[in-house]
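Standup notes
- HV: blocked on the assembly model, inputs below
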Amino acid sequence: GENVEQHPSTLSVQEGDSAVIKCTYSDSASNYFPWYKQELGKRPQLIIDIRSNVGEKKDQRIAVTLNKTAKHFSLHITETQPEDSAVYFCAPTGRAGNMLTFGGGTRLMVKP
Amino acid sequence: DSGVTQTPKHLITATGQRVTLRCSPRSGDLSVYWYQQSLDQGLQFLIQYYNGEERAKGNILERFSAQQFPDLHSELNLSSLELGDSALYFCASSVAGDTQYFGPGTRLTVL
């Protein structure tokens, strides 16, 4: 099965700074790479996803970059705001529609 | 709001009991997935149904079972409950081959 690791496990940044979270995976057949944001006690919410035929995708302050050769993908958040504080999970999978294997999560804290 | 609904929101019960969690997927979604989130195990996949049939199984205990009904809603049955079953249980739904959207979860507390 898929072995997924996220780094760092916690990240504290000042408001306005950038944050980068990295996800490494083991299954070379993975071709769908979503990132979820989860606030305390709430549901995981999809914030951005990328498929393997694309190297980078951007949506306003959020971007995801994929390196299939090295088997890792990263979440980039620019101009961080206090409301970005949450736990972020990566969940690489064989294809969208398959069950998700989640990384251990990264707790992001944005200090005002 | 993702369009996925789950009931109940909270459930408190005793060890040895049996409970049923319910999930209604987004309109048009044929796939339903169940995940368990506990403090020490993170988010773990339990089971997937597609259009009424079991599609994939994760680390689901034998005491747990699920089904998907003709109207596509799904139920997760947990029996002989133990303290360690206390967790948040999420269901997610998707159109076949597309992104998963999560429901608000059911918080189960076993005393």
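- HV (later): unblocked. The beta strands of chain A are 4-7, 10-14, 19-25, 32-38, 45-51, 56-59, 62-67, 72-77, 86-90, 106-111. The CA atoms of residues 83 and 110 of chain A lie 8 Å apart.
- Next: hand off to the docking folks.
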